Amino acid sequence: MKKILFMLILCSIFISPSLIFGSHVPIPPDGVLEMENYIRVFLKYGSYTPTLSLEGRWEDENFQFRYRAITLGGYYRATKHLKVGAFYRLQQGARHDDNWINLDPGWAWWDTRGRTEHVLLLDATPRFLLDFLPGQSWVFTLKNRYLFNTYNSQHTLTVRPGITYFLLGNREPRFNFSFNYDFYIPLNYGDTFLYAHWPYLNVLYHVSGIVKLDFSAAYKTVTWSTSEDAILAGESEYTVRANSLVFGLGMILQFEL
Amino acid sequence: MLVLRKMLMLCGLALGFILLLQGRIYAFEATLTYTVGSISVIRGGNPVSVQIGMTIQKGDIIQTSLGSTAIISIDETTDIKVRENTSLDIEKVKDDIRVNLFSGSIFSRIIGKLRGTYSVSTETVLAGVRGTEFFIAFGKQIDDLPDVWLCVNSGSVKVEVIATGASAVIREGEGINILGGTNLTPAKRYKWTKQLNWNMDPAQGDVEDRTDLSQAYDDLLDQDYD
């Protein structure tokens, strides 16, 4: 009996998901490498920091340039330890659970590159200097964001605890080394508590007081839940996990007005 | 005998002249011309009554408390504005005026023709000038000794690390941070120094400088990257 159980477990690990799930279930790609690029501009003016961000991602197995976004908004430093922000984002190529569609015959992801979505974001980020740690330049950050997507009325909360070490030279930052963990919590959609989560490492090089180069690597897990088309077709419910390794390369420009 | 008496008289006269000369050279006229808040003058280890117009003597220690400002005029050639939480004394060797800064920060402005030099000294740094206006302040203590900041508004200042002799010339509009009071960093234009209030004349407006000196350092809690 034990032998049979062991064999069953072994089979469930090695058999391709496409054989386990029906065709209405999206097949998570294996060992996907993705790339994210961005330029972010910060204009610091006292307690206010207006920002502009351009972002693009090469995604999936075919490394397709799919997601692209422009975000406008700003931060306000409410207290020494808290910044709040509000943003508007225009995006294309975003993929949602319901974009797994019934082609009848067959199932596929909808190509959303031409679909424009509007997202409103609110941000509250407390930060604390961990000056008891060696070097006295460790900062703990808890970035909290609320997102409202007007396209499908989805409400999302993202929570990202992280720790950053600032390597200083002549009392000025030269490199930042960060470890963060992003949790993407759907508030009114999905069948799981977490839609996505990813730990990531960052290295930020301060080329000058204005120009910074940012490198990151994240191991991203997204959980797809049953799409609307699958429900309408009377198919069985599913949750599928897709993993990918996402590299980021971006430029950050910080101006002080 | 007469010759000997004459020689003794001459020697006495010469000695008297030298003493007179020395007295003139070593004395300095420093006057407290402006105060706001609580100012203390410690003379011989004891506090003395402080009033505008009082003479500051050699060895007097001038102290300002939180939110206080004082202006001292030295020999009608130099004004110094003493910011809050500062302690200093003034000395003169021959024609050279030296302000010894023990803590806090001061502005210096040369307004007349100096007979010698004017310098500000901390435990580790000597800042010497000729015809200039500059600000010197103790910064954060991250190493064994506190940083020393120096910013020049007009003219130039030669900064010298006393222990090593390393030096740099700081020009108009530039500032320098001497790390731990011993390591010179490259001089450059710091944005925060534009907020310094260089005015030392109450008739021309507010003389108090309320610049938050913590701005001299990057605020690690104010860094946004996404």
Describe this protein with a few key phrases.
heterodimer; A: 257 residues; mainly beta; Porin; 11-stranded mixed barrel; two-stranded antiparallel sheet; 13 strands; 62% strand; elongated; B: 226 residues; Jelly Rolls; 9-stranded antiparallel β-sheet; 9-stranded mixed β-sheet; 18 strands; 11% helix; globular
Layout of strands and helices, then pairs:
The complex is a heterodimer of chains A (257) and B (226).
Chain A: H1 2-14, H2 17-20, E1 32-44, E2 48-59, E3 64-79, E4 82-92, E5 100-102, E6 107-109, E7 116-129, E8 138-149, E9 154-169, E10 172-186, E11 196-206, E12 211-225, H3 228-232, E13 239-256
Parallel strand pairs in A: 1-13
Antiparallel strand pairs in A: 1-2, 2-3, 3-4, 4-7, 5-6, 7-8, 8-9, 9-10, 10-11, 11-12, 12-13
Chain B: H1 2-26, E1 30-36, E2 39-43, E3 46-48, E4 55-56, E5 61-64, E6 69-74, E7 78-82, E8 87-93, E9 96-103, E10 105-110, E11 118-121, E12 125-129, E13 133-138, E14 148-154, E15 156-161, E16 167-171, E17 175-179, E18 183-184
Parallel strand pairs in B: 9-11
Antiparallel strand pairs in B: 1-4, 1-6, 2-3, 2-5, 5-8, 6-7, 7-10, 8-9, 10-13, 11-12, 12-15, 13-14, 14-17, 15-16, 17-18
Describe this structure in words.
The complex is a heterodimer of chains A (257) and B (226). By secondary structure, chain A is mainly β. Chain A has one domain (28-256): Beta Barrel (Porin). In chain A, 9% of the residues lie in helices and 62% in strands. Chain A contains 3 helices and 13 strands. Chain A has helices at 2-14, 17-20, 228-232, and strands at 32-44, 48-59, 64-79, 82-92, 100-102, 107-109, 116-129, 138-149, 154-169, 172-186, 196-206, 211-225, 239-256. In chain A, strands 1-2-3-4-7-8-9-10-11-12-13 form an 11-stranded mixed beta barrel. Chain B has a single domain, classed as Sandwich (Jelly Rolls), CATH 2.60.120.1440. Chain B is globular. Chain B has one helix at 2-26; strands at 30-36, 39-43, 46-48, 55-56, 61-64, 69-74, 78-82, 87-93, 96-103, 105-110, 118-121, 125-129, 133-138, 148-154, 156-161, 167-171, 175-179, 183-184. Chain B has 226 residues and is mainly β. Chain B contains 1 helix and 18 strands. The chains are: A mainly beta (257), B mainly beta (226). The A-B interface holds A 40, 42, 44, 49, 51, 53, 75, 77, 80-81, 83, 127-129, 136-137, 139, 143, 166, 170-173, 176, 204, 212, 214, 252, 254, 256 and B 140, 142, 147, 177, 179, 185-186, 191, 217-218, 220-226.
